[in-house]
Amino acid sequence: MEKRINDLINEILEYKIQFGNGLQDEVYIDLSMLLLKKAISSYRFFRFFKKVYIKAAIFLLNYFQKEPDFLEETGKVVISKNKDYGDMNLKEFGKFGIIVRLNDKINRYYNIKEKETTEVNESLVDTIRDIIGYCLLLLCYTRK
After folding, report:
1. Residue 80 CB contacts under 8 Å (≥ 6 apart), including other chains
2. Which tens digit of pLDDT belongs to each residue from 6-32?
3. What is the C-alpha to C-alpha distance for residues 127 and 61, in angstroms, rounded to an integer?
4. Between the CA atoms of 128, 117, 121 and 26, what dihedral angle is there, to the nearest 10 degrees?
5. In this structure, are residues 14 and 87 in contact, taking their beta carbons and an 8 Å threshold?
6. Which residue of 8, 19, 32, 64 could cross-link 60, Cys pair, CB 3.0 to 4.6 Å?
7. What is the DSSP string of 13-27?
8. What is the torsional sign of CA 38, 98, 9, 27?
C-alpha cells in the first residue's frame, strides 16, 4: 500500500497544467469536488475515466494549497493511518466503503464552506486533506 500511494503521489505531481484564465482558486477546488462527485456517483461504469477524474481532482486540490509539500505530507498521514487501521477496514466494505466515506467528506467540504465555521474545529484544509487521502486509498484499492 505504501509504495502504491507514493507512486500515485509522484504521478500526480508530474502533471503540468497552467492556470492563467483569472479564475479564483476556489473555482478550481469546486471543479475538483464536481469531478469527484461524478467519479463516485456511478462507480461501476467508465472505470478508466473515473481514475482520471480522481487523479485530476487530487491534482487540483493539491495545486491550490499554499504548503509546498502538501500532497507528500497527506500521503504520509494516509500511510500511517492505514497502518493503524490495518487491512480489515478496507477488506470489510471494499471500494464501496471508501466511496461512502469520500462522499461524506465532500459533503462536509460544502457544508463547512457554506457555514464558514465548524463545530469540531476542522478547517477546510483538513477536510481537503481527508478527501485526498480517501482518493488515494480508492485509487490504490482499484489497482489491486
Report:
1. none
2. 787 777 777 655 555 555 666 667 777
3. 11
4. 20
5. no
6. 32
7. HT------S---HHH
8. positive
Q: Which amino acid is at 126?
A: D
Name the 3-class secondary structure at 118: coil
Convert the pLDDT of each residue in 84-101 to its tens digit.
887 777 778 888 888 888
The whole domain housing 43 covers 2-142
Dihedral angle sign, alpha carbons of residues 61, 67, 73, 78? negative
The tally of domains found in the chain comes to 1
Amino acid at 142: T
Amino acid at 82: N
